[in-house]
């Protein structure tokens, strides 16, 4: 990165300072005539002390006559001068230290070497004898651990200081000219009139500041010179001190291990003796001493627990030492490599060291996950139980009967002693596990720091693996190729293979036989693969097992590639003394093996009548283009990748900038041509993308992705030309891996879609069979034979995967899961090399203190996935298993709704977890919400709870016919707050769920859709009731909707005023045909009664007129009826 020269920086800062100070010059107070006259004529080279400047600052701060603005400026200047003088004093002290370090270096080094020679060997210090009991050994172990830790920390400090010391010459060579230049500038500044004849307080302060800076720079110049002179002496002393500390650490660790071994052996012996003593005591106790037997049984459990705790303590201590060692090694390696990178700047060797360091840091999380020991909660629980048993000890002693035997009393005392020891061991184990967790956290933090540092160096373009491309690259390429393909290298290659055959003949022979067998059976595998495609063409023979078989044949067809590449990589890695060329070739084969295997797998998937064409229904022309492009890609890219890595080690790195870079450029030029033919050519994939309105957005996304993919090789070639060849190679492999992940995700998506497609086709086939059965039953007898010979055929288009036959909800949900899965896999892959997740997590959003972009993306992703899953889950469940079962519609709806509620709850809990909601801090909110719910939201909550009750209890279901508050209709939807009922007028009635729980409802189809119709009918007096009853039964029997089981009934119910009442009761299979059937029955009854001469009478009433006729007037135009003495009866 280009840096602005320091002189230019200073000039710019000085210019800004002048601009700021100009408005304040007028405010400077004039110099008083009674001031000290020596201030004007004081020599600039006079010695300036820290006390003088501090006294001047105190005088200014106490002077009330100076303006506040000017006073603040003077205070700032004098404060800078004080800091400069303090730094000058520190430099002077370091000068003395450096001079002193050169005086007694020989004696110090000799003393360290004498101490080193006087130290005992590791074998001697490891001979530690038994010095006491377990408690004494435990104290010795803790003391020795503290000594070892102190020595290790001191060694780390000395190593860091030595590493810093080795880097100081380069820093001094840069800083020394800068100090000399700054000192010259300050000396020149003293000649300025405003400094030489300073009269105002501000100018005096500036002169003091210049004097302080002059003193600081002079002392720093002297300090740098003395540091240069004492460099070798101090380095020699630190090296000697480091060697002594390394030996002391080895001895201390050896002593610690020996003491820990004795301590663990002592504990194990004590645990074994405890178990043996309990077993012996159980055998010796008399059968009638139940108290002692019960206590011995408890002691047996304590002995087992004691043994477990002792073993756990041993494992935890071993894990602590392992983690601490790994952490110290990683820290030391990291500091060393960082200093080397700082000194050398770059190069192939540094890149290799960084990648080695990165691989070690990447393995840290896996190593820590393997250390699964007792959790702190388990230990806390066990410790609490032991404490409780100790508290119960006095109770047991008081409750012990006086008639108890001596064995029982001895067991009580023994129990107390064991519990005390067990409590101590639990305490030690808890402390050890806590320390282990802290060490693991520090180790993982250091690993994360290492990963970030390596990523910044490699992917931040701070380090070139080779110089930029030039004419020398072309000149060295032929020589490098001759070196690479020299006969000596290929002889070494042959020797490596022959040596592995001599050392492991059976293993090599087995691999060869398997590879040859797979190659010879490729034709059979291909035929079997095509057979599975033929078997899925008919619905009657289509099974998902055929797709799984096709997947198996696909794996077997691509297996030889994996075996051959993997065998050569493994064989070369077993070479006893490989050269740099062979190591690079082995590394290249290991990197190429998984990529080549996945590529071979994709080629087999894209073959004609293969998994993609026959089972997934992918376009055959597109698959042919992709298959051809993969072949062209593989024959150039993989050899180039192996060739690039062949120049990655030792002497081979000499040709890395030439041969490796030219191989990279040629390979990616070829890749660009292949991509162009595949994507952009007139018959490429982009030309075949749909341009319809519904596909426009998706097509534009695909087009953008393909064009970006086409530009990637050009960008990587530019990086390689600039010198970032290793970075470009890693990006190239990463991009190829990304494409493979997308392709593999597409295959998994196709497998899932294929399973759902089969389910859909089976359901459609079953419905078609049912329709044919019904049609056959309805046909006449003479047509039945023809119908029975009907054959269900599959349309020719069914050979292709008909996505329209699959539920749109299912396909949408599968697409969302596919995008989510592939996206997460790609992010996880790139996070191993580039700290993308850490970077997003470190960027905080504005106006927030702890909310990062990563958390915002996580919340958005969770909400999006939750929304899509809730929206499309019904279709997935319906197609997956609900429709294939005999579960009723209402039950299926209840299951779907509950699953949606569960998804919403899980999604919200995950979102709240990302937001880091601390529920303990929201107790007041829960109280407030409870009050609010009690007043304002009680109806809403009641409806929600009642909705859950309806879903679990299921008094009504979707599809039921119900009557509530005089409204009869069909339940069409059950939602969170209300249920929708569609009445017979096709109106949708929204009924709150609470109403369905608290009110009385009639469910016509709760247990069965069977319902009864009651038809009352009256006949005139004098009619034949038996004939009328028979007519009613005949009408019911002749109607197709009336069930025969239970059959209809007709009864003579009563003698009414005007008629003889009969009632017919009949049963219908469902509620849907009720109104129409009643109408048809009424019509048929009237018709048959009329044909039989049975009268259906009108209601009749008798009027008795006893008086009042004498006062009525005659009717106009009519004769009045004759009135007699007796009243007449009129009907």
UniProtKB/TrEMBL annotation:
<dbReference type="InterPro" id="IPR011014">
    <property type="entry name" value="MscS_channel_TM-2"/>
</dbReference>
<feature type="transmembrane region" description="Helical">
    <location>
        <begin position="504"/>
        <end position="521"/>
    </location>
</feature>
<feature type="domain" description="Mechanosensitive ion channel inner membrane">
    <location>
        <begin position="508"/>
        <end position="845"/>
    </location>
</feature>
<dbReference type="Pfam" id="PF21088">
    <property type="entry name" value="MS_channel_1st"/>
</dbReference>
<keyword id="KW-1133">Transmembrane helix</keyword>
<feature type="transmembrane region" description="Helical">
    <location>
        <begin position="894"/>
        <end position="916"/>
    </location>
</feature>
<keyword id="KW-0732">Signal</keyword>
<feature type="domain" description="Mechanosensitive ion channel MscS C-terminal">
    <location>
        <begin position="1013"/>
        <end position="1096"/>
    </location>
</feature>
<keyword id="KW-1003">Cell membrane</keyword>
<dbReference type="InterPro" id="IPR025692">
    <property type="entry name" value="MscS_IM_dom1"/>
</dbReference>
<feature type="transmembrane region" description="Helical">
    <location>
        <begin position="922"/>
        <end position="952"/>
    </location>
</feature>
<dbReference type="Pfam" id="PF12794">
    <property type="entry name" value="MscS_TM"/>
</dbReference>
<feature type="domain" description="Mechanosensitive ion channel transmembrane helices 2/3">
    <location>
        <begin position="901"/>
        <end position="938"/>
    </location>
</feature>
<dbReference type="InterPro" id="IPR010920">
    <property type="entry name" value="LSM_dom_sf"/>
</dbReference>
<feature type="transmembrane region" description="Helical">
    <location>
        <begin position="629"/>
        <end position="649"/>
    </location>
</feature>
<dbReference type="InterPro" id="IPR052702">
    <property type="entry name" value="MscS-like_channel"/>
</dbReference>
<dbReference type="Pfam" id="PF00924">
    <property type="entry name" value="MS_channel_2nd"/>
</dbReference>
<dbReference type="InterPro" id="IPR011066">
    <property type="entry name" value="MscS_channel_C_sf"/>
</dbReference>
<dbReference type="Pfam" id="PF12795">
    <property type="entry name" value="MscS_porin"/>
</dbReference>
<dbReference type="Pfam" id="PF21082">
    <property type="entry name" value="MS_channel_3rd"/>
</dbReference>
<dbReference type="GO" id="GO:0005886">
    <property type="term" value="C:plasma membrane"/>
</dbReference>
<dbReference type="InterPro" id="IPR006685">
    <property type="entry name" value="MscS_channel_2nd"/>
</dbReference>
<keyword id="KW-0812">Transmembrane</keyword>
<feature type="transmembrane region" description="Helical">
    <location>
        <begin position="857"/>
        <end position="882"/>
    </location>
</feature>
<feature type="transmembrane region" description="Helical">
    <location>
        <begin position="587"/>
        <end position="608"/>
    </location>
</feature>
<dbReference type="InterPro" id="IPR049142">
    <property type="entry name" value="MS_channel_1st"/>
</dbReference>
<dbReference type="GO" id="GO:0008381">
    <property type="term" value="F:mechanosensitive monoatomic ion channel activity"/>
</dbReference>
<feature type="transmembrane region" description="Helical">
    <location>
        <begin position="705"/>
        <end position="726"/>
    </location>
</feature>
<keyword id="KW-0472">Membrane</keyword>
<protein>
    <submittedName>
        <fullName>Miniconductance mechanosensitive channel MscM</fullName>
    </submittedName>
</protein>
<feature type="domain" description="Mechanosensitive ion channel MscS porin">
    <location>
        <begin position="56"/>
        <end position="276"/>
    </location>
</feature>
<feature type="region of interest" description="Disordered">
    <location>
        <begin position="1107"/>
        <end position="1131"/>
    </location>
</feature>
<dbReference type="InterPro" id="IPR023408">
    <property type="entry name" value="MscS_beta-dom_sf"/>
</dbReference>
<dbReference type="InterPro" id="IPR024393">
    <property type="entry name" value="MscS_porin"/>
</dbReference>
<dbReference type="InterPro" id="IPR006686">
    <property type="entry name" value="MscS_channel_CS"/>
</dbReference>
<feature type="transmembrane region" description="Helical">
    <location>
        <begin position="550"/>
        <end position="572"/>
    </location>
</feature>
<keyword id="KW-0175">Coiled coil</keyword>
<feature type="transmembrane region" description="Helical">
    <location>
        <begin position="816"/>
        <end position="837"/>
    </location>
</feature>
<feature type="signal peptide">
    <location>
        <begin position="1"/>
        <end position="26"/>
    </location>
</feature>
<feature type="domain" description="Mechanosensitive ion channel MscS">
    <location>
        <begin position="940"/>
        <end position="1005"/>
    </location>
</feature>
<feature type="transmembrane region" description="Helical">
    <location>
        <begin position="732"/>
        <end position="752"/>
    </location>
</feature>
<comment type="similarity">
    <text>Belongs to the MscS (TC 1.A.23) family.</text>
</comment>
């Amino acid at each position: 990165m280009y840096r602005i020269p320091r002189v230019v920086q200073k000039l710019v800062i000085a210019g800004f300072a002048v601009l700021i100070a100009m408005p304040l010059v007028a405010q400077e107070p004039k110099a008083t005539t009674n001031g000290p006259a020596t201030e004007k004529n004081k020599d600039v080279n006079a010695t300036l002390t820290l006390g003088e400047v501090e006294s001047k600052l105190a005088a200014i701060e106490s002077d009330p006559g100076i303006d506040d603005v000017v006073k603040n400026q003077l205070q700032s200047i004098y404060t800078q001068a004080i800091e400069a003088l303090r730094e000058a004093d520190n430099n002077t002290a370091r000068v003395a230290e450096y001079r002193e370090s050169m005086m007694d270096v020989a004696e110090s080094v000799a003393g360290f070497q004498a101490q080193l020679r006087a130290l005992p060997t590791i074998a001697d210090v490891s001979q530690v004898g038994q010095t006491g009991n377990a408690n004494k050994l435990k104290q010795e172990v803790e003391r020795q651990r503290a000594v070892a830790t102190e020595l290790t920390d001191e060694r780390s400090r000395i190593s860091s200081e030595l590493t810093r010391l080795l880097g100081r010459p380069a820093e001094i060579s840069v800083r020394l000219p800068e100090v000399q230049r700054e000192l010259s500038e300050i000396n020149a500044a003293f000649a300025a009139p405003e400094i030489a004849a300073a009269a105002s307080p501000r100018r005096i302060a500036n002169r003091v500041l210049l004097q302080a800076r002059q003193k600081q720079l002079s002392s720093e110049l002297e300090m740098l010179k003395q540091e240069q002179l004492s460099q070798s002496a101090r380095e020699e002393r630190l090296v000697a001190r480091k060697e002594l500390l390394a030996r002391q650490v080895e001895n201390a660790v050896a002593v610690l291990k020996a003491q820990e071994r004795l301590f663990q052996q002592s504990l194990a012996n004590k645990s074994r003796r405890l178990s043996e003593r309990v077993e012996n005591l159980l055998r010796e106790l008399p059968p009638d001493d139940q108290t002692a037997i019960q206590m011995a049984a408890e002691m047996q459990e304590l002995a087992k627990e004691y043994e477990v705790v002792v073993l756990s303590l041993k494992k935890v201590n071993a894990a602590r030492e392992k983690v601490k060692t790994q952490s110290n090694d990683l820290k030391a390696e990291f500091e060393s490599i960082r200093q080397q990178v700082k000194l050398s700047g770059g190069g192939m060797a540094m890149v290799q060291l960084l990648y080695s360091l990165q691989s070690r840091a990447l393995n840290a999380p896996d190593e820590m996950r393997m250390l699964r020991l007792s959790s702190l909660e388990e230990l806390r629980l066990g410790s609490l139980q032991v404490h409780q048993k100790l508290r119960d000890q006095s109770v047991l002693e008081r409750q012990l009967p006086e008639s108890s035997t001596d064995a029982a009393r001895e067991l009580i005392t023994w129990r107390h002693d064991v519990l005390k020891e067990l409590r101590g061991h639990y305490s030690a184990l808890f402390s050890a596990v806590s320390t282990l967790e802290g060490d693991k956290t520090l180790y993982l933090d250091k690993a994360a720091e290492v990963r970030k540092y390596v990523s910044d160096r490699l992917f931040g373009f701070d380090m070139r693996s080779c110089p930029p491309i030039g004419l020398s690259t072309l000149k060295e390429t032929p020589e490098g190729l001759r070196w690479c393909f020299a006969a000596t290298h290929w002889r070494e290659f042959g020797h490596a293979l022959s040596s592995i055959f001599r050392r492991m003949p059976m293993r090599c022979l087995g691999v060869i036989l398997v590879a040859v067998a797979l190659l010879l059976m490729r034709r059979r595998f291909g035929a079997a693969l095509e057979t599975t495609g033929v078997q899925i063409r008919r619905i009657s023979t289509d099974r998902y097992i055929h797709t799984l078989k096709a997947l198996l044949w696909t794996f077997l067809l691509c297996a030889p590639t994996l075996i051959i590449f993997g065998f050569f990589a493994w064989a070369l890695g077993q070479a006893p003394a490989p050269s740099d060329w062979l190591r690079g070739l082995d590394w290249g084969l290991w990197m190429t093996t998984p990529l080549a295997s996945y590529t071979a797998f994709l080629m087999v998937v894209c073959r004609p009548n293969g998994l993609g064409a026959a089972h997934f229904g992918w376009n055959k022309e597109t698959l042919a283009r992709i298959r051809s492009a993969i072949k062209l890609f593989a024959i150039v890219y993989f050899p180039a990748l192996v060739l690039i890595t062949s120049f990655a080690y030792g002497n081979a790195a000499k040709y890395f900038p030439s041969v490796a870079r030219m191989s990279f450029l040629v390979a990616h030029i070829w890749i660009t041509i292949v991509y162009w033919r595949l994507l952009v050519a007139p018959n490429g994939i982009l030309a075949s993308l749909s341009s319809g309105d519904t596909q426009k957005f998706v097509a534009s996304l695909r087009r953008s992705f393909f064009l970006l993919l086409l530009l990637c090789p050009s960008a990587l070639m530019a990086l390689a030309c600039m010198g970032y060849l290793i970075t470009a190679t890693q990006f190239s492999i990463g991009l190829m891996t990304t494409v493979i992940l997308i392709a593999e995700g597409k295959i998994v998506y196709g497998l899932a879609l294929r399973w759902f497609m089969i389910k859909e086709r089976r359901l459609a086939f079953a419905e078609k069979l049912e329709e044919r059965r019904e049609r056959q039953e309805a046909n006449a007898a003479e047509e039945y034979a023809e119908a029975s010979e009907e054959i269900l055929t599959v349309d020719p288009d069914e050979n292709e995967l008909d996505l329209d036959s699959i539920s749109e909800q299912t396909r949408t949900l599968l697409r969302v899961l596919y995008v989510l899965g592939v996206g997460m896999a790609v992010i996880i892959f790139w996070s191993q090399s580039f700290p993308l997740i850490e970077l997003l997590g470190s960027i905080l959003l504005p106006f927030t203190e702890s909310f990062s972009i990563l958390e915002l993306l996580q919340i958005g992703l969770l909400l999006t996935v939750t929304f899509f899953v809730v929206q499309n889950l019904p279709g997935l469940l319906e197609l997956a298993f609900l429709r294939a079962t005999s579960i009723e519609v209402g039950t299926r709806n209840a299951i779907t709704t509950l699953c949606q509620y569960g998804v919403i709850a899980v999604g919200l809990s995950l979102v709240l977890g990302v937001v880091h909601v601390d529920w303990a801090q929201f107790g007041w909110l829960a109280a407030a919400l409870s009050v609010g719910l009690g007043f304002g939201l009680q109806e809403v909550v009641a409806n929600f709870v009642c909705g859950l009750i309806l879903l679990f209890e299921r008094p009504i279901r979707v599809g039921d016919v119900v009557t509530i508050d005089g409204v009869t209709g069909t339940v069409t939807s059950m939602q969170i707050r209300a249920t929708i009922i569609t009445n017979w007028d096709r109106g949708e009635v929204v009924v709150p769920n609470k109403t369905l729980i608290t009110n009385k409802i009639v469910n016509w189809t709760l247990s069965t859709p069977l319902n009864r119709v009651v038809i009352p009918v009256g006949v005139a007096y004098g009619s034949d009731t038996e004939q009328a009853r028979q007519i009613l039964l005949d009408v019911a029997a002749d109607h197709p909707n009336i069930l025969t089981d239970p059959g209809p009934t007709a009864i003579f119910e009563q003698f009414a005023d005007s008629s003889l009442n009969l009632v017919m009761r009949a049963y219908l299979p469902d509620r849907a045909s009720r109104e129409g059937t009643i109408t048809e029955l009424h019509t048929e009854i009237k018709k048959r009664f009329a044909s039989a001469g049975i009268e259906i009478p009108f209601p009749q009433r008798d009027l008795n007129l006893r008086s009042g006729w004498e006062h009525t007037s005659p009717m106009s135009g009519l004769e009045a009826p004759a009135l007699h003495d007796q009243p007449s009866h009129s009907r």
